[in-house]
Amino acid sequence: MWTTVCEAIATQIGEDRIVKPDEAEGRLISVTGEAMPAVPILRPRDTEQLAKALEICSAHKTPVIPMGGSTGLVGGLRHTGKELYLSLELMNRIESIDPVNRVATVQAGVVLQNLQQAAEDAGLSFPMDLGSRGSATVGGMISTNAGGEKAFRFGMMREQVLGMEVVTSSGQILDLSNAMIKNNSGYDLKHLFIGAEGTLGIVTRAQLRLRPQLPNVNTAFALVPDFASALEVRHRVEAALGNDLTAFEVMWPEVYEMTTGHRTGRLPLPIASGVYLLFESEAGTARDPEAFETAMAALYEDGLVEDMAIAASEADRRDMWSIRNDIDAIIRNLSPFLAFDVSLPVSKMELFVQDLETALTTRWPKTRFARFGHMGDNNLHAVVSIGQDTSHYKNDISSIVYDRVTMMNGCISAEHGIGIDKLPWFELGKTSSAIALMNTIRTALDPNNILNPGKTIGAVG
């Protein structure tokens, strides 16, 4: 099927730039364990090679699926029978760290953790952080407009991108480079490609905003009796710490039990029936180091928290976050499962959780959950398992989830995109005119529909 187009690409950029189907088969393309079929992978070394490969694919009307760190949850890398895979794993250079202008210029295949370390080595920080920092790539994070643990303060990936280089479906290289925070000279075209899941163009390089290192980091784990108390604690902590508050996470009790049940030694907090909160502040040296502890003490004195642990060291801090980010423990406990990433007004988050639990357990009494998220920025993750039939009832369960999200004025995707799994519900909450405009843009930029076809807004053209 791919012989002719692969031979043409090999002639232009080298045979060693193509991974053969039998060598590619079995690569993981999702954190849920979904694997790649026997399909060739294009692996260009630079923008020019990528442009030439896409030019050839466009001429042959051969679609491609762009790959990042393969940490998605919505089937964005799922093969539908005709596509080649396109990996930028060899385009992984950190080209420059500019400490004066606080800008990093990196290729799209750079892994988040490597970027964080390079920024730290220069006395700066890149404020995006994800549990999958060891595998998530810059290109993948841009394509899904990733959020993560610090989005509450620093915003999502969109807020970190100053400029970029993009290759269109025809092989045209667009130079949208920019190293300034303010640039109001016409349409800011980079925003078309951020969050587009590779359907409008392939990001190959980015200029990213760096921040100063903030040495005064404070982390606390708290147990509160219910979600109403969690809302009050968020209000009080925000009022006390202001812009220093970087993260505010929420976990329902089953998550804390799953992620600590296999641990030995003392836990930060006991396993109980309340709601768990993990929050963190970052400040410069001018901030009184006791301000955080003073704010925490006030929560105790006013009876808002039942128990609390404050990190006394970096090791304590890492241990607390490892509990929040132990997705493997959730996978072990709930497989087979469906994972939902939605956003909701925080005022309706508890109602959503209760209503969803009632709806699912009424139909499937043995339903189990793991509910957690970035409460500070409206993001809730709900992992659901009804048992061995979970995948069989995928559409039914998804409809129950997304119908309730829409009724509560939420969004069906917070930070993982649409992919292929959420496509049947894509139109929820969107006007027909908005969808028509999206299709017009996609058709204009990819008239042959070769970039991740069937994903995000469906097939067009």
From TrEMBL:
<keyword id="KW-0285">Flavoprotein</keyword>
<comment type="similarity">
    <text>Belongs to the FAD-binding oxidoreductase/transferase type 4 family.</text>
</comment>
<dbReference type="InterPro" id="IPR004113">
    <property type="entry name" value="FAD-bd_oxidored_4_C"/>
</dbReference>
<dbReference type="GO" id="GO:0071949">
    <property type="term" value="F:FAD binding"/>
</dbReference>
<dbReference type="InterPro" id="IPR016169">
    <property type="entry name" value="FAD-bd_PCMH_sub2"/>
</dbReference>
<dbReference type="InterPro" id="IPR016171">
    <property type="entry name" value="Vanillyl_alc_oxidase_C-sub2"/>
</dbReference>
<dbReference type="InterPro" id="IPR036318">
    <property type="entry name" value="FAD-bd_PCMH-like_sf"/>
</dbReference>
<dbReference type="InterPro" id="IPR016167">
    <property type="entry name" value="FAD-bd_PCMH_sub1"/>
</dbReference>
<protein>
    <submittedName>
        <fullName>FAD-binding oxidoreductase</fullName>
    </submittedName>
</protein>
<dbReference type="Pfam" id="PF02913">
    <property type="entry name" value="FAD-oxidase_C"/>
</dbReference>
<dbReference type="InterPro" id="IPR051264">
    <property type="entry name" value="FAD-oxidored/transferase_4"/>
</dbReference>
<dbReference type="InterPro" id="IPR016164">
    <property type="entry name" value="FAD-linked_Oxase-like_C"/>
</dbReference>
<dbReference type="Pfam" id="PF01565">
    <property type="entry name" value="FAD_binding_4"/>
</dbReference>
<feature type="domain" description="FAD-binding PCMH-type">
    <location>
        <begin position="31"/>
        <end position="213"/>
    </location>
</feature>
<dbReference type="InterPro" id="IPR006094">
    <property type="entry name" value="Oxid_FAD_bind_N"/>
</dbReference>
<dbReference type="GO" id="GO:0003824">
    <property type="term" value="F:catalytic activity"/>
</dbReference>
<dbReference type="InterPro" id="IPR016166">
    <property type="entry name" value="FAD-bd_PCMH"/>
</dbReference>
<dbReference type="GO" id="GO:0022904">
    <property type="term" value="P:respiratory electron transport chain"/>
</dbReference>
<keyword id="KW-0274">FAD</keyword>
